[in-house]
Design brief:
It is a single chain. By secondary structure, the protein is α+β, with helices and mostly antiparallel strands. It has a single domain, classed as Jelly Rolls, CATH 2.60.120.10. The protein contains 3 helices and 11 strands. The chain has helices spanning about 5-10, 15-25, 50-55; strands at about 30-35, 40-45, 70-80, 85-90, 90-100, 100-105, 115-120, 125, 130-135, 145-150, 165. The strands form 3 sheets. Strands 1-2-3-10-5-8 form a 6-stranded antiparallel sheet, covered by helices on one side. Strands 7-6-9 form a 3-stranded antiparallel sheet, with no helix packed on it. A two-stranded antiparallel ribbon has the order 4-11. A hairpin with a 2-residue loop joins strand 1 (about 30-35) and strand 2 (about 40-45). The radius of gyration is 15 Å and the shape is globular. About 35% of the residues are buried.
Length: about 170
Amino acid sequence: MTELQQHIAAQTSVAQIERVLRQADYHITGVDSQRPWGGFVCIDPAQAGQFAVDFFAASGVEIKDKVDAPLSPKILFVRPGARLSWQYHHRRAELWRFLTAGAYYCSMSDELPPQSTLARAGDVVRLAAGERHRACGDAQHPTIIAELWQHTDPAHPSTEDDIVRVADDYQRQ
C-alpha cells in the first residue's frame, strides 16, 4: 500500500478521511457522515485520473476514464459490523479497493448469497452495472474502501439516487 493509502486506512472517521484527502490536494465535492452504516467522501471527478493512480495503479486493474463515460471517485467508510444495502445500480459500474479488511457480497440475482467474501487490505472488486452487491464492515474495525464509479449512460450520469435496494438493514427504500 502507498503512504496515502496507509494514512487513510489509519483513520477512524469520515472527517479524518476528508482531512487527509485535502492534505493530499484532493478537491472534495461532498461529504456524508450521516449514513446509518458510516459515510463517504466524494472527490472532484476531474481528479479521477490521479485517484486511479493513487488507489488502483498497484492493483494491476485497467481503468478507462472516457470523456463519454467519466469516472467519479470516492472513499467509503463502513462502521464496524455495519452493512450497506443489498443493492444495484442502473447507470454505473463500480470498482472497489479495500484499504482495510472487510467483506462483501455480489451476485447477478436478487438472492443474497449464503456467505460473504472476506476482503483483505489491497483486494479489488469489480462490479458491473446491474450486479447486486453489498459492502460489509469488519466486526472490530472500520472498513475503508476506495471506490470509482464508471458511468454507463453518458447522457444520464449516475447519482446517489441511482440505487435499487433489494434489502436494507435500516428499512430504507
